[in-house]
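Final report, Chapter 2: Outcomes

The project's central promise was a pipeline that accepts a single protein chain and returns its three-dimensional structure in a standardized token representation, suitable for archiving and comparison. That pipeline is now operational. To close this chapter, we reproduce one record exactly as it appears in the project archive, with the input sequence first and the structure output second.
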Amino acid sequence: MKLSFSLKFLTFAIIGMLFFTSCTDETTEGAVVSFEAGAGYLTGDAEVVPGGTFTVNLKALKGDNEMKTLTINEESSKVELSRIEIDGSPAFANPILLSGANTSSFNYVITIDAGTVQGTKSYSFAVTDTEGTITTKSLKITVAGTLVTTLTGVLFNQSGPVGFGGLNLLTGEGTGTSASDVNSQIRDMGIDSSSTVTGTWKQKVGSLNGSVLRYIKKGQNGVAENFTFADIITKEQLVTLWDKGGATFSISEKIVVGDFLMVLHKNTYFLIEVKEINVTTTDNKDNYKFDIKY
């Protein structure tokens, strides 16, 4: 009796061990997926400006089985191909069918257009292997900021025709500089009466109607050496840029093409890039052409 019980117990134990081993053998490890750190690469949640992009360096190593596909999702939908670049080239598919050495490992630099709709969305990078095991790496991107208005304006020599010499930075329209021209924020400073050459244009601008001005200098006060007018996309960026400007002033130095000036008027921040300086020799219709953002 005792021997029979022991044999039965041993039989059940062996069957149990075989069952456990069988279950364990069915478990497979999926791919290992990570965001690699590097200049300009995100490894976690971030905020971008409307119309901006974000970039991740996605690295994947196969698990027990070869990798088959990479799918890039925004929330529960696949990201449109037109919004994806991989290693600097437009994406050709989503999901991407992996082949060759990429079934064992890959290292992709992926850039995605975050769009202009403000809010927070989850982006996932899902790697599926040949057995259907899915490994996902995700992050959240918040699109925030108020887009700037961009326009062009022409400011004329104040000593020219009546009704010119001021500029409305909100519309790009030229105005006069009298007390009645309340919609202008900057003015030209006219001709240099101390010059020995009659009609010499000062090529200086000044504040009007309570505005204050600052120069923005590349490589100074935290402004990037490669700063461009195109870098400014939101009004919030204008506020930050103002804080990186030099001392405030009411009359500029002599204006040259390529100068960046900022104007603060009634809580509105304006960025100006000097695109042209047009000097006339037979009249006082000299003028500057500005690109303006606010």
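Archive annotation: The first helix runs from residue 2 to 26.
This record, like all others produced under the grant, will remain available to the consortium after the project formally closes.
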